[in-house]
Amino acid sequence: MTDPHDDAAARRPLDLAGLQRRLADFAAARDWQPYHTPKNLAAALSVESSELLEIFQWLTPEESARVMDDPDTAHRVTDEVADVLAYLLQLCGVLDVDPLAALAAKIDRNEHRFPAGKPDRGSP
Ligand SMILES: [Mg+2]
Question: Cα of 50 to ligand 1 centre, how many Å?
Answer without folding.
Answer: 9
